[in-house]
């Protein structure tokens, strides 16, 4: 996952590429474009098979849909997926490795792709790209030894139409690779004088590779003085790695504030704050931010245990720190030597809900969006 990958793209490898989509549900050889029924059948009525008969799926309210089921060993190399923005916090994305009953990845759909507020933000990073208008891409390598399963659960009260493609390789040696894990936690609001837990209780060998936070500010003034802390292996009360401030960890400085412009969004290959949602004086009353930090060139390695948390601090009079009680939703990504790990409880629809004002409430009578392609 470095720029050096470009120097190896010409290397010949004895692997095969496969892809799963609504046009080839099992990724079988020669299995694409054979559908005779699907969400595009009516549009293709004059053309017949092979002409976009099945470009998407409809997931009924309350149901879970299996995006991909892959036997044996392999590695997922790319995921493209899209649905209407009203669904970004009502869908749960999960991944299971090697036949495990517990998911290694369980994250709200939008948060996994750095769009946790239900409003689009362009993300131009190396592992995650979010493009107009809701074209979400993941390039996180997802290796597995004995099978992979990806699912989407629809927690909303309406059916959801989803377009997707999962590309993977088979035939390689993945025995030395860790399993990708992603965990989501939300403090809403954060307890008084208590850090927000990003992950805890992780056991095994691995490396921490990324953080996305959807941060909602519940008070006036600057909110990002808090430090992020990584407790590695035998660390107890005090961490081995301690940051110097929230904007510092996410690669910015001095409040992300360009004089005359205020908070300034940015997106780079490894870190960014691609989203700044400002109050509108009516329904949108708080500032909201989306920030990511990918540890691709600087992974945080641990041998036995890992715990990560972050503080929420502002300023009070007399240049004293002010503990804040903000709305913080974090997604943590790490590779581990095992396919399951201690994880938080599965969030409910109420746990996920974003309150952005009347204009952000979905029209429950709306028709599925048109084919985005």
UniProtKB/TrEMBL annotation:
Question: In which residue ranges is the amino acid composition biased (Basic and acidic residues)?
Answer: 352-361
**Family matches, as InterPro entries:** DUF2961 (IPR021345)
Disordered: annotated span: 21-49, 343-373
Which Pfam families would you find in this protein's record?
DUF2961
Name of the protein in question: DUF2961 domain-containing protein
């Amino acid at each position: 996952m470095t720029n050096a990958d470009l120097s190896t793209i010409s290397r010949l490898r004895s692997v095969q590429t496969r892809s799963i989509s609504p046009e080839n549900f099992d990724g079988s050889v020669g299995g694409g474009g054979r559908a005779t029924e699907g969400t595009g059948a009516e549009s293709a009525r004059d053309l017949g098979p092979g002409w976009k008969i099945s470009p998407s799926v409809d997931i009924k309210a309350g149901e879970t849909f299996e995006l991909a089921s892959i036997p044996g060993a392999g590695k997922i190399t790319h995921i493209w997926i899209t649905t209407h923005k009203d669904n970004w916090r009502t869908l749960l994305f999960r991944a299971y490795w090697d036949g495990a009953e517990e998911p290694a990845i369980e994250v709200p759909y939008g948060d996994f792709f750095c769009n946790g507020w239900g409003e689009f933000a362009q993300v131009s990073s190396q592992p995650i790209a979010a493009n107009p208008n809701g074209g979400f891409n993941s390039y996180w390598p997802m290796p597995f030894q004995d099978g992979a399963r990806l699912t989407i659960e629809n927690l909303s009260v309406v059916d959801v139409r989803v377009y997707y493609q999962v590309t993977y390789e088979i035939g390689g040696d993945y025995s030395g690779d860790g399993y990708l894990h992603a965990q989501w936690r939300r403090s809403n609001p954060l307890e008084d004088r208590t850090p927000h837990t990003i992950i805890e209780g992780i056991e095994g060998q691995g490396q921490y590779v990324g953080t996305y936070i959807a941060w909602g500010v519940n008070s006036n003034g600057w909110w990002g003085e808090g430090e992020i802390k990584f407790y590695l292996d035998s660390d107890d009360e005090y961490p081995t790695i301690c940051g110097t401030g929230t904007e510092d960890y996410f690669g910015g400085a001095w409040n992300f504030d360009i004089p005359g412009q205020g908070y300034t969004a940015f997106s780079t290959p490894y870190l960014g704050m691609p989203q700044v949602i400002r109050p509108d004086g009516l329904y949108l009353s708080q500032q909201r931010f989306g920030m990511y930090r990918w540890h691709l060139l600087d992974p945080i390695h641990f041998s036995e245990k890992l715990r990560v948390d972050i503080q929420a601090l502002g300023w009070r009079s007399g240049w004293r720190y002010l503990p804040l009680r903000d709305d913080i939703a974090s997604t943590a990504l790490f590779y581990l030597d095992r396919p399951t790990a201690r994880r938080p409880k599965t969030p409910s629809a109420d746990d996920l809900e974003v309150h952005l004002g009347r204009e952000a409430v979905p029209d429950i009578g709306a028709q599925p969006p048109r084919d985005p392609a």
